[in-house]
Structures are given as structure tokens and as C-alpha cells.
Amino acid sequence: MSFYTSFAIIGYGTAGALYAEEILSHNDQGYKLRILTRSADKPAFKELKKHGVSIIRVDYSSEDSIRSALEGADIVLSALRDDGLEIQDTVIRAAKAAGIKLYVPSEYGRDTIGFTEKCLFPYYSHSSQLK
Fold first, then answer.
1. What's residue 81's pLDDT?
2. What is the CA radius of gyration of the chain?
3. Of 16, 15, 32, which Cα lies nearest the Cα of 24?
4. Most buried of the four, 23, 75, 96, 103, by CB within 10 Å?
């Protein structure tokens, strides 16, 4: 059994669904999974709840809301997309306050270091401050 047993996924789209599917494929390991989302009414959530997944609606602009939802988890897998990256610094602070052991950011396929395109710059401006 893994040292990590409690997972939290923040954001549930393509990447979040793949994370959830993989974690649930190891149900025999006793893993716990929660999904943090802005809207808890996605049709896919009904099926996930049948497998014991907790769906937690959070206010992405509230560090306290995110921290409260993360308490007790070991790992956070961020599946935030481009429009959600602007709140990733809030999520990271909340994760640290909640005692998260491992945080996996959602900057897949993008070079976020030295990013200079003005249309997306606000999403990435915090990366260097958080590393």
C-alpha cells in the first residue's frame, strides 16, 4: 500500500477525469478520493459518488473554502485549465495550510517560466513566486 492514501483533485475536466479513473482503478488499495469543484451538479459526479468519491463544492476565490475541503488529504492533483491557473496560488497556499504532503500543479504542456505573452501573462505571473 502507498504511503499516500487520500487524494484530492481540484478541477474536473479531461485531466481530472483521467486522474479519478486511475485512482478508482486501485480501489482495492483503500484509497479515498475527493473532487473539489465550482459546480457539484455535473452528471459524471453521480457515478463517482457510487464509488465512494466525495464531491465538494468550493469557492475558488476563498483560500479558507479550499483549505477546509483539503483537510485530511495527502495529495492534491490540480487539474485546473488555463482559465483556472490564475487561482492556483490560492490553491497552493490552502494546500500548505491544510498539511498536504504532495501538490501536483496543472501546468502541463506549457512553458510557464519566463512566459511573456500578455494575453495569458496574468495566469503565469505567480509561478516564479511560488517555486
1. 77
2. 15
3. 32
4. 75
Q: What is the spatial distance between Cα 130 and Cα 92, in angstroms, rounded to a whole number?
A: 8
Cα–Cα nearest to 8, from 127, 130, 103, 131: 103
- Cell numbers placing 3: 504511503
Residue spans of beta strands (DSSP E) within the chain? 6-10, 32-37, 54-57, 75-78, 102-104
What one-character DSSP code corresponds to residue 3?
A: S
β-strands 32-37, 54-57: how paired? parallel
Q: Go through the chain and tell me how many residues it has.
A: 131
Could you give the domains of the chain? 6-130 (3.40.50.720)
Q: How far apart, in Å, are the Cα atoms of 131 and each of 21, 49, 103, 127?
A: 29, 34, 12, 6
